[in-house]
Amino acid sequence: MPKKAEFEYYKNIGQAGIDFSANKPFSDRVNAGALLNSIAAIYTVIHNHYGEAPLRIIDLGCGTGWSSNLFALSGHEVMGVDLSKDAIKEAKKKFQRPNLSYKALNYEELNKTGTFDVAIFIDSLHHADDEVKVLKNVRQILDKGGICIVCEPGKGHSTSPDALEAIRLYGVNERDMPPSVIKAAAKKAGFFKHEVFTHPSYAQKSAYKKFNSGKKKLINTKIGRLTSVAYANTLGKTREGLVVLYK
Q1: In a domain, 212, yes or no
Q2: Could you tell me what percent of the chain has a pLDDT over 70?
Q3: What pTM was computed for the model?
Q4: Is 229 domain-assigned?
Q5: CB atoms < 10 A from the CB of 7, how many?
Q6: Is residue 15 situated within a structural domain?
Q7: Low-confidence residues of the chain, pLDDT below 70?
Q8: CB neighbours (10 Å) of residue 153?
Q9: What pLDDT does residue 186 have?
Q10: What pLDDT is recorded for position 111?
Q11: Are residues 122 and 151 in contact, defined by beta-carbon separation less than 8 angstroms?
Q12: d(Cα 88, Cα 61) in Å, to the nearest integer?
């Protein structure tokens, strides 16, 4: 990981960028639906595994804390972790709840955080350059029977316009992280089982997005919509997916 760039990212994007990040998902009008869909999908996965019990959740690479706050709203005990002190400072200022805390830590320092039932990555693990090492550290802080939920951008992300712009402007690490990469790393890290679900943003686009140009307009038809949803739930999961790892 180009650590210096990652440490300084929030300082470099300025206050306007920090405010945009802290006010997600609603500040990002284009992607708000997809971001909310990711939170909803993660909530469903957690409920599938644990039912309604209040849990200890660690939100890894939480940035300015918006996702951690959404998990804490339902009464879970949540800790948001990010290596950027600037991001954590903003998170502590903006989101204050008795069941919500934040720490500025590297992934290598997770042993300082405690023990958790659920670990979550939302668009953050792909910034690491050694996902095996990171997942080993995560496995160590999960309680027996705990789960790690990984919701990351898949194939093609590293060459997308947004990723290339972030690399050019800020020097951060932008990688493709499809389910195959996550599964291989999880096996080396010692997780005994995994499940792959359709990526929430992929599911949302295939079911709801209206396409206005080119061949993609065919997706707007009834048959096109059914085909798109079926693809997202099958072959689409090999490109981009939500992966659940079991300790």
Answers
A1: no
A2: 99
A3: 0.93
A4: no
A5: 18
A6: yes
A7: 1-3
A8: 21
A9: 98
A10: 87
A11: yes
A12: 10
CATH assignment at residue 44: 3.40.50.150
Question: Which helix (H) or strand (E) element contains residue 186?
Answer: helix 179-189
Number of CB atoms found within 10 A of residue 127's CB: 24
Residue with tokens 């020097």: 171
What are the φ and ψ backbone dihedral angles of 141, each rounded to 5 degrees? -95, -5
Omega before 161 cis (within 30°)? no
CA atoms in the 13 A half-sphere facing the CB of 177: 27
185 occurs within a structural domain: yes
Would you state the pLDDT for residue 1?
A: 43
| Tally of domains within the chain | 1
User: Which run of H or of E encompasses 133?
Assistant: helix 131-141
What is 148-175 written as a DSSP string? EEEE---TTGGGSHHHHHHHHHH-----
> What is the domain range of residue 147?
3-199+242-246
| Token pair for 169 | 């402007």
pLDDT digits (tens, 9 = 90+) for 78-104: 999 999 999 999 999 999 999 999 999
Enumerate residues 6+ apart whose C-beta is below 8 A from 78.
Answer: 57, 58, 59, 68, 71, 72, 99, 100, 101
